[in-house]
């Protein structure tokens, strides 16, 4: 994503491969590790930028002011053009919440801190993140932070100590990444300290290039085809994800090493004037512009296309449009300004600052051009149950239970699909204790691994131990006479191929399957069942995978919407088919003494069409979870029937008599 000084065809080819991987991955084509293309870019940037600094310092012509201005001239005009176009399109395509998130990210991108802002608010690999049109700006901000720090560090460090500086930075950053990634995958993904080693790999190649060429040049040239093959294979299959490794991890180490090897080798077969290379050289030339334009196109389309995934024809069309717009941006903005002479310091600084402020003011003014019929951000807020802190990040802790009062007699257990039920429970069953952990299904001795969203082996083991502690707690507390359990359970029925299981007192890797997941669910319910305890297992709510809250907002706000779900209709027959596997897993639980299964589809879809509102309030906040207000509205009239399930109506009738 950065320009080089000496023209290197091999680097242009690497750029082409990197941007192609990223675009194909974002288009959801079969390229499991396409996100590793960014790691290739980091190595290239580290090599070129430190080389630029080192050469200028060696010739006695380096200036921090000139360096920063040249970087701004190279990167900002094209980025600002894309940001402005995206802001204008957002007015017609983004919901209220997505517009707010876009503005937050834009402000961070203009201050070169979007990677920090995104670290605090989103996981790159989650579905919700795919709607942010500036999600890709995280890597630009990270590189800009590298540009800020590196020349300063090289200026204050004597040249003879540069090897210690660069190798030391690489070693510390890599060690920090490998240690932090399993424990805090989002931070390790977004932040410079845990990604700097990738840029430093390129820097170290630059620093030792003469020695490398002298001592190992021939061997590296022979190895370069193999390194390129390894790079392509790893980016295609991403084996680390199957091993429960989070990114950046082993995959990144392999790709960074292979990229550094190819750069160090300067292979003649990649630097010759071959016809087969010309399309790659063109693609490498527009790689920065293509990287800038492709993601907003995909994200804005995903906001407007109310179904998932995007159809193949649309994804291929977006790739074609991205290539066309990337070429236009490159020849119309990026290349002319890159070749233009650097303006004087005051004028250049004024242009950069003025452009930044103007773009920010324009973006801030856009939301005022439309007035939403109601506050959709409040209506779509996360529903975590009794309190915001009831989405436990760590293990189950009886001392930290979320409760509505002392000595609870009712227990709510599960993942986010249990959280959203709290407001629908009748007040007569208070006090209620809530033990919920997002994505951690309430089962015994089993958890999925979904490394791309931070659910690695450490997370999965924590989920297993947390559920085991909850089961032990319920077994030890006979005063808890009512238990409500809920989860979509799809995550432990084989939708994720890998997981962990507790076997013979040890947590071991397993292949996930429907049979294993169903058995773990039934084992959990059986373990807490007792003659004097009522257990209600609540099925997942109606869903077909479409965010109907966003659909309703778009229809009411006059935003553009496309796709087969644009009419905002959900039918029971489709819902039954979508949730069929979950209901198959629930089948048989009702045979356990004291256990009832509540069919939410039957309750919330009394006819063929499933209503999306309750008394004028949106029932759902996304593709499946009940909204806070929706859950309260259902609870106000006991629409889910908890009073009857727990026999509360019968008790009241006896008291009245």
UniProtKB/TrEMBL annotation:
Q: Where would I find the Acyltransferase domain in this sequence?
A: 10-325
Highest taxon in the source lineage: Bacteria
What InterPro entries would the database entry show?
Answer: Acyl_transf_3_dom, Acyltransferase_3, SGNH
Q: What's one Pfam family the UniProt record gives for this protein?
A: SGNH
Query: What residues form the membrane-spanning segments?
Result: 35-54, 75-94, 162-181, 220-243, 249-268, 280-300, 312-333, 345-366
Residues in domain SGNH? Answer: 390-636
- Which UniProt keywords are given for this protein, alphabetically ordered? Membrane, Transmembrane, Transmembrane helix
Protein known as: Acyltransferase
Q: Species name for this entry?
A: Thioclava sediminum
């Amino acid at each position: 994503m950065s320009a080089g000084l000496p023209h290197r065809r091999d680097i242009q080819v690497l750029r082409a491969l990197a941007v192609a991987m990223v675009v194909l991955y974002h288009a959801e084509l079969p390229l499991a590790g396409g996100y590793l293309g960014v790691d290739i870019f980091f190595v290239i940037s580290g090599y070129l930028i430190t080389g630029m600094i080192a050469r200028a310092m060696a010739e006695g012509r380096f200036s921090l002011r000139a360096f920063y201005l040249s970087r701004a001239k190279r990167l900002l005009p094209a980025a600002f053009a894309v940001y402005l176009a995206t802001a204008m399109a957002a007015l017609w395509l983004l919901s209220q919440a997505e517009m707010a998130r876009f503005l937050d990210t834009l402000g961070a991108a203009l201050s070169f801190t979007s990677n920090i802002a995104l670290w605090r608010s989103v996981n790159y690999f989650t579905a919700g993140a795919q709607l942010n049109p500036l999600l890709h700006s995280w890597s630009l901000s990270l590189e800009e932070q590298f540009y800020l720090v590196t020349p300063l560090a090289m200026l204050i460090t004597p040249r003879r100590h540069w090897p210690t500086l660069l190798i030391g930075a690489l070693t510390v950053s890599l060690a920090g990444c490998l240690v932090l990634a399993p424990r805090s995958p989002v931070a390790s993904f977004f932040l410079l300290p845990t990604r700097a080693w990738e840029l430093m790999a390129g820097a170290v190649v630059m620093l030792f290039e003469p020695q490398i060429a002298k001592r190992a040049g021939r061997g590296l040239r022979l190895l370069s085809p193999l390194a390129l093959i390894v790079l392509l294979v790893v980016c295609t299959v991403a084996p680390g994800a199957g091993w429960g490794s989070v990114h950046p991890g082993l995959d990144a180490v392999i790709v960074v090493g292979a990229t550094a090897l190819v750069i160090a080798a300067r292979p003649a077969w990649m630097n010759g004037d071959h016809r087969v290379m010309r399309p790659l050289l063109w693609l490498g030339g527009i790689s920065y512009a293509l990287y800038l334009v492709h993601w907003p196109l995909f994200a804005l389309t995903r906001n407007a296309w109310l179904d998932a995934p995007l159809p193949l024809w649309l994804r291929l069309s977006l790739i074609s449009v991205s290539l066309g717009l990337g070429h236009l941006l490159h020849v119309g903005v990026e290349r002319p300004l890159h070749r233009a002479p650097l303006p004087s310091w005051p004028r250049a600084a004024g242009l950069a600052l003025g452009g930044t402020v103007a773009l920010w003011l324009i973006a801030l003014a856009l939301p005022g051009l439309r007035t939403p019929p109601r506050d959709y951000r409040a209506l779509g807020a996360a529903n975590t149950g009794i309190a915001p802190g009831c989405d436990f990040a760590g293990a189950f802790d009886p001392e930290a239970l979320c409760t509505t009062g002392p000595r609870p007699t009712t227990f709510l257990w599960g993942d986010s699909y249990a959280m959203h039920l709290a407001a629908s429970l009748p007040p007569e069953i208070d006090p209620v204790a809530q033990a919920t952990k997002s994505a951690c299904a309430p089962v015994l001795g089993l958890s999925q691994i979904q490394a791309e969203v931070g659910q690695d082996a450490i997370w999965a083991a924590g989920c297993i131990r947390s559920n085991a502690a909850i089961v032990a707690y319920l077994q030890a507390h006979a005063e808890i006479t009512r238990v409500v359990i809920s989860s979509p359970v799809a995550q432990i029925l084989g939708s994720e191929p890998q997981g962990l299981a507790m076997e013979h007192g040890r947590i071991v890797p397993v292949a996930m399957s429907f049979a294993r997941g169903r058995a773990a669910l039934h084992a959990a319910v059986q373990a807490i069942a007792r003659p004097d305890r009522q257990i209600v297992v609540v099925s997942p709510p109606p869903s077909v995978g479409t965010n109907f809250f966003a659909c309703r907002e778009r229809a009411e706000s006059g935003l553009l919407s496309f796709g087969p779900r644009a009419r905002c209709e959900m039918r029971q027959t489709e819902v039954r088919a979508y949730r069929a596997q979950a209901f198959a897993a629930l089948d048989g639980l009702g045979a356990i003494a004291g256990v009832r299964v509540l069919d939410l589809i039957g309750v919330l879809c009394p006819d063929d069409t499933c209503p999306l509102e309750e008394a004028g309030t949106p029932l759902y906040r996304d593709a499946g979870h009940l909204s806070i207000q929706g859950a309260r509205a259902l609870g106000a009239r006991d629409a889910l029937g908890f009073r009857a399930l727990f026999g509360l109506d019968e008790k009241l009738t006896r008291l009245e008599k």
